[in-house]
Amino acid sequence: MSLTIHSSFLPHLDPEASLAFYRDVLGFEVRNDVGYEGMRWITVGPADQADTAIVLHPPGVGPGMTDDDRNALLEIIAKGSYFGVNLASTDLDETFATLEAAGAEVVQEPVDQPYGLRDCAFRDPAGNMIRIQQVG
Questions:
Q1: pLDDT of res. 107
Q2: What's the rounded Cα separation, in Å, for the pair 106 and 99?
Q3: The domain that contains 76 carries what CATH number?
Q4: Which residues form the VOC domain (predicted)?
Q5: Residue 42 belongs to what domain range?
Q6: Pair 26, 42: CB distance under 8 Å
Q7: What DSSP line would sit under 34-101, residue for residue?
Q8: Averaged pLDDT, 13-39
Q9: Which residue has the higher pLDDT, 21 or 77?
Q10: Judging by beta carbons within 10 Å of its beta carbon (0-12, 13-18, 19+), is residue 41 exposed, middle or buried?
Q11: What letter does residue 28 receive in the DSSP assignment?
């Protein structure tokens, strides 16, 4: 068996704010932008990784989702504790400085972790945790 990661999903609360963050701040390319009944799914990813993407989606949509479930999910997202993604950079300090200068919400400055990684963290406009690890 041979598996690869094709896409991961992160909720957005404001598609335009999320698009601006992932496209303009992180520099990801927009691969798809689909609307349906007032909702929007935006697929983004690094230009040099065409086979891996993040799908930014409206939260709480789908069969079987009750209003109570949707409200609970929105509360978790609003607290910034729903989900996240780990990215990698060959120059963590430069990446951190670039994102901080662009106004991204800093959660953690670059630090050497006790488990051997150097990383930093930001939140996207929906509150999703974006951790960036030093590689190479």
A1: 95
A2: 9
A3: 3.10.180.10
A4: 4-135
A5: 7-134
A6: no
A7: EEETTEEEEEEE-TT-TT-EEEEE-TT-STT--HHHHHHHHHHHHTT-S-EEEEEES-HHHHHHHHHH
A8: 95
A9: 21
A10: middle
A11: P
